[in-house]
Fold each of these.
Amino acid sequence: MKMTVLITGANGEIGHGLIDHLAEMDSVDIVALDLHPLDESLRRKCVRTIVGDILNASILESLSTAHNFDSMYHLAALLSTRAERQPPLAHRVNVEGTLNLLEIAITQSRLQGREVKFIYPSSIAVYGLPSLSVKNQTAKIRESEWCTPRTMYGINKLYCEQLGNYYANFYRQLDAEPTKGRIDFRCLRFPGLISATTLPTGGTSDYAPEMLHQAAQGNAYVCFVREDTRIPFMAMPDAIRALLRLEAAPRESLTQQVYNVGAFNPSASELYGLVQQAFPKTEVSFAPDPKRQAIVDSWPADVDTTAASRDWGWKTSYSLEKAFWEYLVPATRDRYRSM
Ligand code: NAD
Ligand code: AKB
C-alpha cells in the first residue's frame, strides 16, 4: 500500500528537497499545495498539485475529501524578514494557516480512525536572547530555554508548536466522548538552512546562502550582518533527512514533540573565509543592517541536539567542511557554470 502525503509550501526550498527524496521512495503518493505553481521538475513527481492558499478553507476541505493522508508536512509560511514587514499577513498565514491544516489533520484522523502524522518545521527564531552578552555566555541552547522570541515569525512558530501539542493531546478535552483519532504532531526547530539548488527569500539567516550563491556567480556581495555574527546552520540534504527520520521514528521512542536540530555554526567571517577559498575572486563587504542584525543577535549561537540524537538517532552527515567542499561548492559551481 502506498502512503499518501500532503506537502504545503511545496514549491519552497524545503519542498524542493523533500519532494525529490519522497519521489525516490516509490512508496509515496505526493499531493503538493503552494500559492505558486510548482516547478515543472517537481510537478511530475506528484500525483496531484494544487495552486492555492492555505487560508482558503474550501480548497483544504476538498483536498481532505479527495485523499486519505498518512502524513502532512506543513511547510507553507512567511519567513522572518518578510513576516516583520507584514505582521498581520504573517499572523494569518503562519498561525491561521497552520490552524486550518491542523483541523484538516484531525478531521482526517477521525474519519480514518487512525493517527495522522503532522510534521511541522519550526525554527531557531522561537528563541529570543535578551542581549549579545547573554548570547555569548549561553552555550548550546536547549528546547526549554529562552523561548522569548522578539519577531512576529518566532512568536508565530512558538505558538504553532503549542497548537500542535494541543491538537495532539488536549483537543476538545471537555467533550463527553473522547475524540476518536488523533494527530501525531512532530516538530523540528531548524537552524538556518543552506541549499545549493535553491535560493532563500524573506529570511534573516539568508546572508549565508546569499553570500555563497553570489560568489558562485562571480558577483560581489554586501553582507547585512556583522562579521562576528554566529548562528547555527545546516545543509539542506541534512534538513530533509531530519524531517524523514523524525517522521519515521517509532512513536514510543519520542519523549517530546519539539526537537532542536543543527549541524555547524560558523561566524559570518568564517563563512566568508570558506567562500573566498572556493571562489577566490569573490568580493564580500560587511554593512550590517542594525535592525536585521538585532534579530540574528537574539537567535542562539548554537543549539543542543541531545534529545534528537537520543530519541530518534539524529546525527548530522554534513560538517561545515563537508557541506562546503562536497555539496555546496560543487553543486553551486554546476548550477551557475553555463551562466
Ligand atoms: P520558502 O519561503 O522557500 O517556501 C515557503 C513556501 O510557502 C513558498 O513556496 C510559498 O509560495 C508558500 N506559501 C507561502 N504562503 C502560502 C500560502 N498562504 N498558501 C500556500 N503556500 C504558501 O521556505 P522554506 O525554506 O522552504 O521553509 C519551509 C518551512 O520551513 C517554513 O515553515 C519555514 O518557516 C521553515 N524553516 C525554514 C528555514 C530555512 O532556513 N529555510 C529554517 C527554519 C524553519
Ligand atoms: C529565517 O531566517 O527566517 C529562516 C529561519 C531561521 O527560520 N531561515
Amino acid sequence: MARVLDGRAVAARIRAEVAEGVAELAARGVPIRLDVILAGEDPASVTYVANKRRDCAEVGIESRLHAFPADVSRKELLALVERLNGDPEVSGFFIQLPLPGGMDPLPLLSAIDPSKDVDGLSPRSAGRLAVGLPSLLPCTPHGVIQLLGRCGVELGGREAVVVGRSNLVGKPLALLLLRENATVTVCHSRTRNLAEVTRRAEVLVVAAGRRGMIGAEHVREGAVVVDVGIHRTEDGGLTGDVRQEEVSDRASAMTPVPGGVGPMTRAMLLYNTLEAARLQAGLS
Ligand code: NAP
C-alpha cells in the first residue's frame, strides 16, 4: 500500500508560514494585497475566485476583486492590467482563466509585470524560469515540487516522467524537475507506447486531464506517483487521472485526489503573493 502524500497537511503548513510572513511585513508597515481580475460569471471561475479570496483572508492578505461582464473588451482588461502593474498598493494580481468567449489570454498575460505575476503564467515569467532567472512560479507545478520536497521525496538524479505538456502544468513542471536535477521525460497525446515510457519513471507526474487513464500497467514498482488531474464524479466527488486503488499496490507513495495537488495549488498562490510583496518592498 503506497504512502499517502498529504497535500492538505503540507498546504496547511505553508499557509501558516505565509501568515507568519504576512505578519512580519505588517510589523514593518508593508501592506500586502492581491487583486483578482474576473471576466464573466462562469460558475466554476466564480467559485475558484471566492475560494482564493477566502484563503487570502485566512492568512491576513487583503484581496480586491475587479469583476467585468462577459462581453468586456480586451482593451479594457489591458488598461486594468497596466493600472495594477503601476499601483504601489498592489502586491500582485492574476486573471482568472479561462476568459469568456474564447478570448486569448496571451496578450493580457504578456502585459503583466513579472514581479506581480502571482500565477506565474506570463511569457516573461515562463522565460525567466526557462533560463534559470528568479521568478514567481506557476502555482500547480510549484505545489508539486514543494509537496515532494516536504514529504522527503528525493529528485536529484532520478528518472522523472511528466504526462502532459500544457503551459499551465506539464511544461513548467518539467523545467522545475530539471532544476531539481531529475532526468526528465515529457509525454503527450502523440507519445507512442505511453506505458513503456511511464514505467521508466521513479517519479511519475500525471497531468493529462483524462480521468483514470493511468493504471498499474503504467507504473514502475516502487514509483512515486503524483496525480494532478481533477474530474468531477457522478456522485459529486472528485477523482484524478490515476486509478488510485490499482496503482497504490505498485507505487511507494502517491498523492490522493482530492487532498493532494489541489490544496497545494491554492497554498502556492498565497506563497507567491507574499513573495511578490517582498519584491515590491525590496526585501527579496
Ligand atoms: P491540458 O491543457 O488539457 O493539457 C493536457 C496535456 O495532456 C496535453 O499536453 C495533452 O497532450 C496531454 N494528454 C492528453 N491526453 C493524453 C494521453 N492520452 N496520453 C498522453 N498525454 C495526453 O490540461 P492542463 O491544464 O495541463 O490540466 C491537466 C489536468 O490537471 C486537468 O485534469 C486539470 O483539471 C488538472 N489541473 C489540476 C490542478 C490542481 O490544482 N490539482 C491545476 C491545474 C490543472 P497534447 O499537448 O499532445 O494535446
